[in-house]
Amino acid sequence: MTSPHISSPSHLLSPGRRHLLRWVMPILLVLLFLMTLIWLPRQAQQMESSERQEQLIADSLWVEQAIRFQLSRDDESMRLIGREIINDRLKKDQFRIRLNALLRNNREFYRVTWFNADGHPVASTDDFPVARNGLSEQSQQTDHNARIIRRPMYSAPAVPPGIAEPVLMDYHIPLFRDNHYIGSVVASYSVSRVLNEMVPWWFAQDNEIVLTDTDDKVVARRTAGGPGLNVYTHRRELELPGLTLRLHTNSTKSAPKLLPNLLVGSVIVLSLGLLWSLWALWRDINRRMTAEDALVNEVSFRSAMENSLVTGMRARDLEGRITYVNPAFCKMVGIAADELVGKIPPMPYWAPEAMDEYQERFSNVLAGRVTPQFETIFQRIDGERFPVLIFESPLVDQNGKQTGWMGSILDISDRKRAEDLNRMQEEKLQASARLASMGELASTLAHELNQPLAAISSYTTGALNMMQNGALDPTSLQPALEKINTQAQRAGNVIRSVHQFVKKREPERQPISIKNIVDNVTPLIELQAQQFLVVLQTAIPVNLPNVLGDAVLLEQVLLNLTRNAIQAMAAIAPERRILRISAALDRNTSSAQSSQQAIIVSVIDQGHGIPPEVAAGLFSPFFSTKAEGMGMGLNICRTTIEFHGGTLTYANNPTGGTIFRFSLPAQGSAN
Ligand code: ADP
Predict the structure, then answer these.
(1) How many CA atoms lie within 13 A of 76 on its CB side?
(2) Residue 2 included in any domain
(3) Could you tell me the residue range of the domain that residue 378 belongs to?
(4) pLDDT tens-place string over residues 450-472
């Protein structure tokens, strides 16, 4: 049973270290390879060098043996001569002939001289032999020593007095006959010839050969193959009776080259190339990994962003197949992503009642005509409908080719709710404003109602009087009753119009004529106008087209504008207190479609006008310059007119005062 916590050690390492570790092996291998490559030639060089050294030692030994061998053969020859002299078999005159024959074959001899006991030459290979005391000092000393120990001895090489060359090494053989010293045979070797004759040419070709005494004083040198390079050297003692010489061999060969051949060189170049390409690969992979890391970060950043979005995202390919949805979209429609991706229309979130609209828009999409922004209704999995706002944009790949569409979908249920709430509040406000207007009108209204009621009362009194006076003719009562009826209707109309006006209700749009609206509201306008001694003039052409609108709301607009106009003229000279209401068809503001004409209604006063500081806040809610003004009038008017698709503007009246104009889209043609 393994615990889930036990994992491979590489899991414990950070990605950077793991990445480094991956490179350790190849780098180590390449380093090992390089080290071997560097070490191998060095090793080969050392081997070659020690081989040469060993060869030199062996050759030097061989040469030493050769010299020794030759000297011992010479020694034998000389001893034989000595013995013949002792035995008196070799006469004085035969000596030279005999020795000359020997010297011809052994060219290392410079001369051989036979001295008598007194040191005078008896015979010699030289034509003019020197006496013993003509020999070098060392030679004379050796002769003496040899006589004492009675054995042949070699003298230290030296140049005999009186001449410049050659260096001679004398071999003294003392001669005793019946224990009497009778002289000596002295064979003089030319030391340089010893080297020339006894060292084989092949050895001399490759080595500088030097003979020295024990103090390393050079006595002979052979440099047939040039001077030695002091790389491979060897020294051997040449022990001779009475004398020790040293044989130095110094090879003319240089140390072996470190890069003996092209192969090693090219292998090194190749491995350097390998190292370089490894480095380049490492750099490249590093860059790729950095890019990959950045990409992973980017992707996780993006997906985190997409996942945290409240906006739904939906991508479709050119055939309309869903290729991607984000979690917000899935949450919105209540369907999992894997159930949505790959789907083609009809989509599971399409509401059946809006299917035609979807299909039409979808065929537009396929034809390449995308509505960039539109509102529609989607259906959640539980059947609940919700309004959405969709933004569509083309999806383009890195080559600039379109691959589909990306849509962002906003659930606007909340917004819709807020809008509804807003509208309801607006309606309430308007109703309240109407009530407020009625409050202002109440006293005038009372006065207005008072007239028909007083008339009714007086007509009724008259009728009663007639009845009491016995006038039982019903026809005589008829005029009075008709007048009563008219007055009652008049009062009823006033009451009804007030009721109509203040009733809280949903706005409803119907085709209505401007003339009707103005007529409806004229009694109420006149009530105020009379109060301020204002003359009302209306100029409404009869053949104006209808507008589509809510009569009560438009009446409210008119009532507001006229009330403001009347109040603006309250302090103006009475002859200028004229309020005009006019309407006209405006063909200039019509849009491309000729049927979309506007009707302009103007409310014109000759009041105090609007100064710039008032103009700035004119349409703001609760802006008023009046003591008991609510400041909502113009604000409500503008909202109402815009709700009807029109605009509310104002301008200075050229004859003084202000003109408020509102436009309303005309409906159809004139009737
Ligand atoms: P209120 O009438 O309650 O003040 P309104 O929104 O209807 O609120 O009007 C705002 C202000 O605009 C008024 O206080 C007044 O100063 C100015 N105003 C409106 N209509 C006119 C007009 N016809 N002439 C001059 N000033 C006007």
Answers:
(1) 6
(2) no
(3) 309-411
(4) 777 877 887 888 888 878 877 66
Interior angle at CA 565, CA 560 and CA 566, nearest 5: 100
C-beta neighbour count of 305 within 10 angstroms: 10
| Strand duo 207-212 + 385-396: pairing | unpaired
* CB 142 within 8 Å of CB 154: yes
**Which domain-ending residue is among 251, 286, 319?**
251
The predicted-structure confidence for 245-271, as pLDDT tens digits, reads as follows: 999 999 988 877 765 667 677 777 887
Residue 335 and residue 366 in one domain: yes
Which of 24-28, 180-184, 620-624 is least confident?
24-28
Residue whose pair of structure tokens reads 């039982």 in the numeric block: 472
Q: Is 614 a pocket residue for ligand 1 (Cβ < 6 Å)?
A: yes
Closest by Cα among 326, 155, 179 to 243: 155
Q: Is 532 in the pocket of ligand 1 (CB under 6 A)?
A: no
State whether 642 and 512 are in the same domain. Answer: yes
Q: Mark which of 482, 506, 530 sits at the end of a domain.
A: 506
CB of 520 within 6 A of ligand 1: the answer is: no
For the chain, the domain total comes to 4
Amino acid symbol at 336: A
Q: Ligand 1 pocket test: which of 528, 564, 613 has the largest number of ligand atoms within 8 Å of its C-beta?
A: 564
Residue 567 has pLDDT above 80, yes or no: yes
Q: What's the whole-model pTM score?
A: 0.43
